[in-house]
Design goal:
With about 240 residues, the chain is α+β, with helices and mostly antiparallel strands. It contains five helices and ten strands, in the order αββαβββααββαβββ. It has helices at about 1-35, 65-85, 135-140, 145, 165-190; strands spanning about 35-45, 50-60, 90-95, 100-105, 115-130, 155, 160, 195-205, 205-210, 230-240. The longest helix has about 30 residues, at about 1-35. The relative contact order is 0.21.
Length: about 240
């Protein structure tokens, strides 16, 4: 008899504890759902203050030394040309000489592949990083002047960068956070509530594109280098409790 009473008492106690835990879980669940999640945007337009440009030049010859001597002479001509355009020598970077053997390929009367030596191709690259964006832009557009000097020269499109991007990012984060908070306050106000404590903040990746372009945002962040004019943006997601 006593054992039955004890068993019933233990079962009743377990039932009461279970109800308490269930009630606490429901209360906590409702409390966790009583939140507002908003996303704010911060953006800024700016002009690049650093330009990177490069060009390649090459020489071909059956004699390696002849090709190398011709390429070395081209390097001097290019260097003197750049200096005449106001480019300091310390801003010019010439790469190591790349040497490639060239071959001609053909098929004989029996359909067998053949190859014959066609000489050496030696190439070199000159690169310039400068804060004088306008000067290097003008240089890249008038590169035919180097070609007219008898040099086989290929110019690459310039790339544009901004050296104060860290400052831009900090300002965008501040603007995005302010925008998100204002959105949350407006939502809470319209719902007849007030904003509580901030529970969570998540920052998105920085997207840098050409203004008014159709460039798509990337999951890992977009970094446009082809345009001098740029527009950067970032998102901040905030989650608040609601009182």
């Amino acid at each position: 008899m006593n054992r039955n009473i004890i068993a019933i008492a233990i079962a009743a106690l377990g039932f009461v504890i279970g109800l308490g835990l269930l009630g606490s879980a429901i209360k906590n669940r409702n409390r966790s759902d009583n939140t507002i999640s908003v996303t704010g945007l911060g953006s800024k337009k700016f002009t690049s203050d650093l330009i990177a440009w490069s060009g390649n030049f090459s020489r071909n010859s059956f004699e390696l030394k002849a090709a190398y001597d011709a390429l070395a002479n081209d390097k001097k001509v290019i260097e003197n040309y750049l200096v005449s355009k106001g480019i300091p020598k310390n801003e010019m970077v010439f790469s190591a000489v790349d040497i490639q053997k060239q071959f001609n390929y053909s098929t004989d009367a029996n359909g067998r592949s053949q190859q014959s030596f066609a000489g050496y191709q030696l190439s070199q690259k000159v690169s310039i990083d400068s804060k004088d964006v306008a000067k290097i832009e003008n240089l890249s557009r008038n590169i035919t002047e180097i070609i007219n000097l008898g040099i086989e020269f290929t110019s690459s499109p310039p790339n544009y960068f901004y050296t104060k991007l860290a400052d831009v990012k900090q300002q965008m984060i501040a603007d995005a956070t302010k925008d998100a908070k204002q959105r949350a306050e407006k939502i809470a106000e319209n719902a007849g509530s007030s904003l509580g404590n901030l529970k969570k903040a998540t920052m998105g990746v920085t997207q840098i594109t050409e203004p008014n372009s159709t460039e798509e945002y990337s999951y890992g962040g977009t970094f446009n280098t082809s345009s001098k004019e740029k527009e950067a943006s970032i998102t901040i997601k905030l989650e608040y409790e609601v009182d």
